[in-house]
Design goal:
The complex is a heterodimer of chains A (200) and B (169).
Chain A (H helix, E strand, L loop, with lengths): L2 H9 L1 E4 L5 H42 L7 H33 L5 H42 L5 H43 L2
Helix pairs in contact in A: 2-3, 3-4, 4-5
Chain B lengths: L2 H14 L1 H11 L2 H18 L9 H14 L1 H8 L13 E4 L6 H11 L4 H11 L4 H8 L3 H16 L9
Helix pairs in contact in B: 2-3, 2-4, 2-7, 3-4, 4-8, 7-9, 8-9
Classes of the chains: A mainly alpha (200), B mainly alpha (169).
């Protein structure tokens, strides 16, 4: 087999397409893009709302005398909010990188693949941060429940239930992140590195 | 970029360069995934068009988008899996042999052969088969002209070791 024979066969092919309704295709693509933007904005609104709602609930419960904000609950609320905001900002940056990467897919293959690799590296970095942050949050959360129990703010059953809930939630999130890392991020990083080295 | 210009460029891409998307999809995926990859490429082209500044040819830009999406396919498949349903109503696009001397079985064999190559070499061969110059292949891939020449020489040597095994008419 030589290249000339391949080129000859290559030239004898054509696109078999019914009349493509371009306006319809554009309308559908636009709908896809708008839908993705709506999902992106929706996720931001939900995340910010949850944070605000958490504080409103805590303050309202304090003012109504249902659940007073003691120094310990205030510290736990502040730590939780700080971690939430930090992880939210990382997720936002990762989502922005993905959007930038798609918008720049008209660059040379080497540049575009390098951008894809940067996005993957960022997501892997997020997974690593989560691997440290999740056990830390579980430990702090459990510690705070324990501290509130010893301060006489909550009964032992509530402390155990609260700590258990945080531990189970942390384990579930950690497992999901580990699965994404193992089945998607690590193989993609390897593939992209191989392809990029093939372009050197 | 003005919406009208973007739409005009996309219409040009669909009318004159649809083959770029199809040939790339055939070279990078098995039949079951082709439609999804073509749709993915169309979506990427639409999203990337505002960054097209006209310094290169539209076809060069589309070769970049198509190959970029093809090389990112596994990941993109997961990312956009839920979105593609909205594009399912588009007419099915295929590549077909023009005459009796090149039957569809031969085309399938050719694409299977191309898929044996590493991804970067696959792209270079595809661009060569579409008669792009070494400079243009460099513009798409980011390789130097020299590197393109060396790579094509290696691909030709690899091809010379392959026997045509399809069973056409």
């Amino acid at each position: 087999m030589d290249l000339n024979r391949l080129e000859h066969a290559w030239d004898k092919q054509s696109v078999a397409a019914p009349a493509v309704p371009i306006a319809t295709v554009i309308a559908r693509l636009e709908a896809e893009v708008r839908s993705a933007e709506r999902r992106f904005r929706g996720a931001i609104v939900i995340a910010v709302s949850l944070l605000i709602l958490g504080w409103i609930t805590a303050i309202a419960a304090h003012l109504a005398g249902i659940k007073p904000l003691t120094p310990l609950t205030l510290v736990s609320q502040l730590i939780g909010s700080a971690l939430y905001v930090a992880l939210f900002m990382r997720a936002l940056e990762s989502a922005r990188a993905t959007r930038r990467e798609i918008a720049q897919s008209g660059g040379t293959l080497r540049d575009s693949l390098a951008a894809s690799l940067r996005t993957i590296e960022l997501q892997i970095q997020n997974a690593r941060i989560a691997a440290v942050a999740i056990p830390t949050v579980v430990a702090i959360g459990g510690g705070l429940f324990l501290a509130r129990y010893f301060a006489g703010e909550i009964p032992g059953f509530s402390a155990a239930l609260g700590s258990g809930f945080i531990a189970v939630l942390g384990a579930m999130i950690g497992a999901a992140i580990w699965d994404r890392y193992r089945s998607l991020l690590a193989p993609r990083r390897r593939e992209l590195n191989e392809t990029l080295s093939g372009l050197e | 970029m003005e919406p009208a210009k973007r739409e005009a460029l996309f219409a040009e891409a669909m009318k004159q360069h649809l083959g770029i998307f199809l040939k790339t999809a055939y070279a990078f995926t098995l039949p079951a995934d082709r439609d999804d990859l073509v749709q993915e490429m169309l979506l990427a082209a639409w999203q990337a068009l505002p960054s097209f500044d006209g310094t290169s040819k539209l076809s060069t830009f589309l070769y970049r988008v198509a190959n970029n999406r093809a090389l990112n396919w596994n990941r993109a498949q997961r990312r956009y899996g839920h979105k593609l349903a909205a594009l399912e109503q588009c007419p099915q696009l295929t590549l077909e042999a023009d005459d009796a001397t090149t039957d569809n079985a031969r085309l399938d064999w050719l694409y299977a052969l191309i898929r044996e190559l590493p991804p970067a070499d696959r792209t270079v061969l595809l661009l060569q088969l579409d008669r792009l110059s070494h400079r243009e292949i460099g513009e798409v891939t980011g390789l130097t002209e020299n590197n393109v020449g060396v790579r094509l020489h290696r691909i030709k040597r690899w091809l010379s070791e392959k026997k045509e095994t399809h069973h056409g008419p």
